[in-house]
Amino acid sequence: MRVNLAALQSLYTYASCPESSVPSFELGGESRKKISKSTPAQFFSYIIFQIVKSGILFIVYRYSPDNYFDAYWAGNAISVLLGVAVMDEILQHLLKQYGGIQKLASVIFRWACGLLILLSIVNAFSTQQASADRVVSAVLAFDRSERVMQCGLCWRFF
Questions:
Q1: Domain tally for the chain?
Q2: N or C end of the chain, less CB within 10 A?
Q3: DSSP string of the chain?
Q4: Contact call for residues 39 and 27 (beta carbons, < 8 A)
Q5: Structural domain harbouring 125
Q6: In sequence order, which residues have a C-beta less than 8 Å from that of residue 56 and are 6 or more positions away?
């Protein structure tokens, strides 16, 4: 079976447009509704980063496909860290009525995130993989941990 490379590149071009347009619509909708004062600032940073990351990945894929792997996983690592910052800000916002509990929850959350990052890195470097696979393993392990924390945050407060 022969694969047409030009067709795959055009498919990627058209498939990457919705990836960056969905956060753009969300950002536009949020600013039109004038609810940005109640929405955490880190959330907007996260959305803007996702839009910029999609554009950069598209350019890297188009003009320097050899560097796409590194750009993709570096972008995902930053995205996961921004996601944790969004969760921290949401936690702060939810507990703003309770000053002492807010400070305690913030300290516990940040220590838990630091510990999860450390465990992800140790887990990635304790395996017998190539260096690129170790980075992917660390990012995926921390991303899974972040998703579990998101589920816990949603379950507890919503």
A1: 1
A2: N
A3: ----HHHHHHHHHHHHHHHHHHHHHHHHHHHHHT-TTTS-HHHHHHHHHHHHHHHHHHHHHHH-GGGHHHHHHHHHHHHHHHHHHHHHHHHHHHTTT-HHHHHHHHHHHHHHHHHHHHHHHHHHHTS---HHHHHHHHHHHHHHHHHHHHHHHHHHH-
A4: no
A5: 5-157
A6: 71, 75
Specify the residue for token string 């929405």: 39
